[in-house]
Every structure is written in structure tokens, then in C-alpha cells.
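Practice record 12: protein with zinc ion.
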Amino acid sequence: MPEDLFGAPRPRHCRKKAARRTLETDLRTVSQRIWDIAQFEDVYRLASILENVPGPRAGRPPAYPPYIYALFLTLRGIHGSARYCAGDLQNPTVWNTLRDGITRHLGPDEARRLPATGPTRHHWQHAQRALLIPRLEQLNETFEDLALAQALRQGLLPAPTRRSWSNPQRHQLIAGDGTVAKSPTLSTTPYSLDPITGEIRRHRVDPASSWQKEGGTDPDDNTNHAVLGSKFVVFSTRHRGYFRRVFLSYRHVPHDHPGGEAAVALDLACAILDAADGCMGVLYDGALRGMHRDVIARRGRLLINKQHKGTKPRYIRTIGVGRCRHELWSNAGRVHERCFLDDGTSTLRPLPVRKLERRSSTHTHRWYHLLTVPCPRGLHEHREAVGVTTTPGERDDGHSDTETGFHRAEHLLQIPDDTAVHQSLYGGREDTEAGFSQFDRSLWNQRMIAFGAEAQSLVVPRLPPRPKRHQRRPLPRRPHLHRRRNRSHRPQQQRPKALTTKH
Ligand SMILES: [Zn+2]
């Protein structure tokens, strides 16, 4: 039997664990992270779009300049809630850490103009309503630009030089997934009536939350359960190793959105593919199907996901070479040959792929598997298109996939699952869960800390990306920060567990 390009999957017990153990020096403490944020230039770049407030209206000038709220927004990701963040900023030592960063990026005069302590939660809530939410779209766009630039700086999604389409590297791909952030409250109705006392009680309801199935889209995941929350699709990329992930983009998925999570994910993925030439493809779960694979394959990129379990084997064609006849079928995402057995039954045998071909024309791309058909009369070669469902006009009359009724993109994958290449790459999709679990744990009470899709959208982005180890600056010497930093009374917020997961 000739070798298959993608290799046979290795059994679970043979796979070696690539991750190294975390070291004490990998730890980034809360005070170090506050310093990182204060010094991180991209936060000030993000804040620059908040500056041009339209229309000079007479009135009291705001207590804090707009960039303070960009810093607050980023710091809230560390503290887990606006209340703790505002509390911490009342501490002069923490506030001075921020002033150091402001002095570095905006000059000493700007830092001197600031009040003696940071904004309160009241200031923040007003700024969120009046300053940030109206500019959510611009903030998103700027965040995506900055995040992609950061990824490129870290050597992720490198410009196309040498690349192998049949075996892309982890840092040449983006990985996406949907996650449900738990609703801040469990109430689904604004009022309830106490049956005994007759008292009417008010409840705060999150308008963005609905009952969502979690883990329901992956064919191999049997742990689906309903969660009340709002769904977000998030894309990231990373090198193998710790502290290498960069979150690239995210979007809220309204519960009545046409096409659901998959439609939002496809839009986001295509936006990244268009912006990053070095991105070779997308890792996603079974929520993306043939119609989505078709879009990505036509852009000349890979979609690496699992074949949906419900797809049944389909007849493709019979190839005839001399006196030979070989019947080709699609099964489990790749081309199989139907072999007739002595007892009158038949079985499907996968055909080894010798080469994955990518051909481009002016408007579109095509993908082919160069197959080897084993035969007692000698090996045959056959080229079969994969990943794209052709429409009338793209092939000879009557021969396009739409006319023959074969949804090729659904049945034939560019990189079939149940192969060694797929196995090693698909781990990158599963790895996105580690990012989500870290996000959940960063939130107070592990629930969403805002009401409504817009305010929640401000919670999800993670800025700044952690600095690479060799890029870290030495910390200035300073006295140990005050007691509020020691949050041992908040058991959910303890950090040590994070060390065992990848970031
Ligand atoms: Zn033959």
C-alpha cells in the first residue's frame, strides 16, 4: 500500500505531550500585569480614537481624560470587576504605576494634570455609557488592527515564504470557537410574584442572554448542556509554547442571528484571512460545514475541522483504465474505493493521497487530491477535486457539482480527519478552550460582569497580549503593594491554577 501524504493517526497512548512544565518565572503577578498595561503602547493607541469628542458643548470638563478609561477597561480584565478595579485605583501606589506609564507615553505634563487618585466606579459607568459604547465599532476595528500587528510582531502568521499546504504549522493558522459567558443573573423575567405574601419582586435581566447549548456543535463532544448566557465567537493564533497566544478578534452572536454562530465565525475568519496574507487557514469545530468550507477554500485557504458525523457515504464516479473499473465513493471526508468481497458484500477502503494540489485562477482557488488507486494491474493515479462545490458554468455543462447533486465541499475535506496531520493540528482548536477557561476565571464569580451585548463586548477583548519572556522589562524597585492586592478572600480569583494551563 503506498504511503498516505497525511499519515495514519497515532493511538492516544503513543502521542507525546509537547508542553513543557511551567516554571516559577512564567508567573505574571497582578502588580506586574498592572505595570505591563500602564507601559503598553497599544492601550494608548486604542485610546486615541476616544479623543475626538464631537461638538464643543459648554459644561464642566470631564474629571479624567478619555485614555484613563481605556486603561481602566484593560485593567478590569485583571481585577475581574469594575468595582475592584476602581477600588484598586484609589490606592496611590497603583495610581502612580499608571502615571509612570502615562509619563512615558504622553509626557510628564499630562501625568501631572491628573487628579490624585483614579476614577471611581461611578466615573467608569458614566464613561462606559457615554464614551465607550457609542464608539464600540471603532474600538473593535482598532483592537483588531492592533492585535494583528502584535501577532505579526511576534512572528505569528508570517508573510508567505515557504509553506506546505498539506502540513501547515500551528502559528500559520488561526483557531476559533464559540464560547458562552454565563449571564450575570439567573433571572429571565423582570418581575415575579411571591405566592405567599403577594409581594411583587423586581429582577435585573440581562437582555443579551438566552439559553445556549454549550459544546453541542462538535461531533465528538458529548458534554452539551444548556447554559444561560451570551455567546461570543473568538479567534486567536499562537505559537506552540506558553505566553504565545494573541486574541485577534471577537464578536457577539445574537441568539436570533441568521446562520447563528457559524455565520458570525465565517465573517470574522474571512476578515482576518483578507488582512493577513500569511494566514494559511482556519481551525474550527464541527459548527462550520461544507457551505462554509467552500467559501474559505475558494479564498485559497484551508479549513481544518472534523467531518460531521451525520454525513453518509456518497458515490462520486467510476474510473476506467483499460479493462479496470474502480468505483470511487466519499466517506468520512475523503475518497474511498468500493471493494467487493468474496461473500458478495462490499466495503469502502480509503485511497492514499499522494499530493494536495492548490491551483489559483483570477477569481478563485481549486483544491485537488492526487490519489493513488492500488490495483493488481499496477497503480493508477487519479485527481479528485476537494473542498469546493462547483456551480453551473464552472465546469462543462451538466458536470458541475451543483448539477450532479454532489455537495463536494461537505463530503471531501482538504485535510481529512482521522489522519496524523489533522490530529496534530486539531489540538490547536481544542486548545482555544484553555483561553476561554482563563477568560471565565478572570471574571468576578466566573459570570459576565456587564449587562447587554454592547457592554459585554467591552469585557471580552484581552489587551495587552502577554509580553514574550525575553521582551519583559525589569520591574522598578518599589515597596510591596498594599493589602487590597492580596485577595485571598476571593477563592475563585486565585491564580495558581492558571499556571497549569497554556495562555
Ligand atoms: Zn485498476
